[in-house]
Write a sequence for this structure.
């Protein structure tokens, strides 16, 4: 059973993530072209996770179940996977809009669920066939969330894109308290997928700065600590690596947003991250050390090594360019 379960975990992490992030045995390298972005007014205007005072006294779990049931059956996964993998400027806007139109009822249910105060999942046994069926359906939901975010970014609808990101991160967090570890891992994959959409967001010409929104996300973003207590040491290690990689991704994006703040004030990237004094620069949570950073002319590199005992694919590198207009 343990071997089968580990196989499901590997399939989950590869199957959902591989469409955008290739699981190669090397560091993930991302090239971003950034525009300077000042502090929003008010500072906490944008949120990537619902505020407690905005939640209604309701249970999100039945809404997520209804969202699963409402999914259309003629989903063109390979086509949508290509749209969310290719450069944003290649997104066929009208085709994407029509695809999203077919998922309108699903999206409405997900948005309603994100605004619920509680998420009490039914405590029932789930067999492997049900897990695999659920994995396929959640994969469809993740792709649709990513596609809607990308379409909104492409159209300059940044406030709407933030709402979709908020819906996505809320679902990711709620899956962490679902009965099975596999659901929690889907939560990690959801959040990781949407962090990649944030990489598109921060490149928008007029995209607002999300430094404080990223700072306000829960840490860990998806916490599976209790779920892995009784698992084998190997599974605990693998899950912990996924949790740390997700939190590293969020922290790196927060550093990038701090750099956009600095550029708005100074017209260039900092020579060193310590030159950024208006906001705090987060450490890399995967190794509890500062991110590595250096500037070469108009370009900057932000990177982090693989954690001890992990393969090179757990390293990351951002190659950044600044575009002043």
């Amino acid at each position: 059973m343990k071997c089968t379960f580990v196989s499901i975990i590997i399939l989950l992490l590869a199957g959902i993530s591989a469409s955008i992030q290739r699981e190669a045995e090397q560091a993930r390298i991302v090239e971003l072209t950034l525009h300077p972005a000042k502090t929003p007014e008010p500072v906490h205007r944008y949120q990537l996770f619902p505020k407690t005072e905005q939640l209604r006294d309701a249970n999100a779990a039945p809404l997520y179940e209804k969202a699963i049931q409402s999914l259309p059956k003629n989903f063109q996964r390979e086509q949508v996977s290509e749209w969310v993998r290719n450069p944003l400027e290649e997104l066929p806007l009208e085709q994407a809009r029509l695809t999203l139109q077919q998922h309108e009822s699903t999206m409405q249910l997900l948005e309603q669920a994100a605004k619920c105060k509680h998420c009490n999942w039914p405590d029932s046994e789930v067999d492997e066939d049900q897990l695999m069926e659920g994995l396929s359906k959640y994969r469809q939901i993740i792709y649709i969330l990513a596609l809607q975010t990308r379409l909104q970014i492409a159209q300059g609808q940044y406030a709407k894109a933030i709402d979709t990101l908020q819906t996505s991160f809320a679902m990711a967090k709620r899956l962490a308290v679902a009965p099975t570890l596999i659901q929690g891992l889907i939560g990690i994959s959801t959040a990781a997928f949407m962090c990649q959409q944030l990489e598109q967001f921060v490149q928008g010409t007029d995209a607002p700065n999300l430094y404080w929104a990223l700072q306000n996300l829960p840490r860990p973003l998806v916490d599976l600590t209790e779920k892995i207590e009784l698992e084998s040491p190997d599974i605990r290690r693998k899950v912990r690596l996924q949790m740390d990689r997700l939190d590293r991704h969020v922290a790196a994006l927060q550093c990038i947003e701090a750099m956009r703040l600095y550029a708005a004030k100074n017209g260039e990237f900092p020579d060193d991250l310590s030159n950024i004094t208006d906001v705090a620069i987060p450490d890399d949570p995967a190794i509890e050390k500062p991110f590595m950073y250096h500037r070469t002319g108009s370009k900057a590199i932000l990177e982090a090594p693989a954690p001890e005992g992990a393969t090179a694919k757990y390293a990351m590198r951002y190659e950044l360019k600044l575009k002043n207009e």
Remarks:
- The CA atoms of residues 115 and 296 lie 44 Å apart.
- The chain has one domain: 2-322.
- The longest helix spans residues 233-266.
